[in-house]
Amino acid sequence: MRQQEATGQVVLISTGGTIASRRIGNGYTAELSGPQILKGAGVPDGLRVRVRDLFTANSSALTTDQQLILLGAVHEALADDEVDGVVVTHGTDTLEESAFLVDLYHHDSRPVVFTGAQRPPDHDESDAPANLRDALAVAATARDVGVVVVFDGLVHAARGTVKQHTLAVEGFGDPSGTPIGGVSEGRVLVRHRPLRRPSLPLPCGPAPRVDIVMHHAGADPVLLRAAVAAGAQGIVLAGTGSGNASPVFVDTVAEAVSAGVLVALTTRVPAGPVAGIYSGGGGVDLIAAGAVPTGTLRAPQARMAVISALLHRSDPAERTAALGRLLSDEPLASLVPETDGVLR
């Protein structure tokens, strides 16, 4: 265990979300700048914060290309050796996606901390100031934790952490894991560090289209076929149970894979791993048809893994193998870019 107080220098990257919102008419809209958010929270004594306003948007409206821009901004901030860590303020709707994407490419011992709010700053019981203060403290003091999500006094590893309540202030957590630490009165306690995987090199080019299709009782593969027809290079199939669908999906998955589409298999169940247990259209058959099981990652983060595999490989078989390594708990030492040959 390690407990520290915040000092040094942190870069705050503001992207909008509830933490940057105020009421306009009948609803809340992201409008506040990074300096305004920071002023409302207060900066811990001894900590210098440099602000970069990247976006001011509701995170439900963010595009994947904007998430890649955010990835680049994080790396630009960490290029300064005097920076102790980075905080990203982000809307809660897609925070889990952006945080996991950045984690796949994060190679630094310094932390990247995602935070936001469930209640906007002008709410009588806003969680925005406390979350931001806690995030700043973690960014200034934690080391070798990778990318983390800080909410409601808890520190979660980005991988596996999802939004698990629409409105409650304790809105984030890993249904299949536990927090790695916490923050109390500005002091950071790291109980354990998550497994750090070798990072990917920064990607080039626009994001490929990757769609999510959910299975349900009575479903047929018409939406999966529509995604392929629309140009999807990857598809995440959110099955039922441990990663199952009806038999009619198996041939469609095989057809998509044979056409070069990268298919990942997850589940709509909140916790637990995907497993090849059932036949008759279940995980056994879908995996045999070429779908890659996602372990405990759910659809939004699995989609980020598919996008990253597509950005780093062009051969379909190599993309499938690369995705499997990204989703595995095994080290990723053999996953290297085609143009570089070195994991940074």
Automatic annotation (TrEMBL):
Name of protein: asparaginase
The protein's enzyme class: hydrolase
SMART domains for the chain: Asparaginase
Residue ranges occupied by any L-asparaginase N-terminal domain in the UniProt entry: 10-194
Residue positions of the active site: T18, T92
N-terminal signal peptide: none
Matches recorded under InterPro entries: AsnASE_II, Asp/glu_Ase-like_sf, Asparaginase/glutaminase-like, Asparaginase/glutaminase_AS1, Asparaginase/glutaminase_AS2, Asparaginase_C, L-asparaginase_C, L-asparaginase_N
SUPFAM superfamilies: Glutaminase/Asparaginase
Catalytic activity: L-asparagine + H2O = L-aspartate + NH4(+)
Native organism: Nocardiopsis lambiniae
Keywords: Hydrolase
Asparaginase/glutaminase C-terminal domain residues: 209-319
Enzyme Commission identifier(s): 3.5.1.1
Pfam families: Asparaginase, Asparaginase_C
Family: Belongs to the asparaginase 1 family.
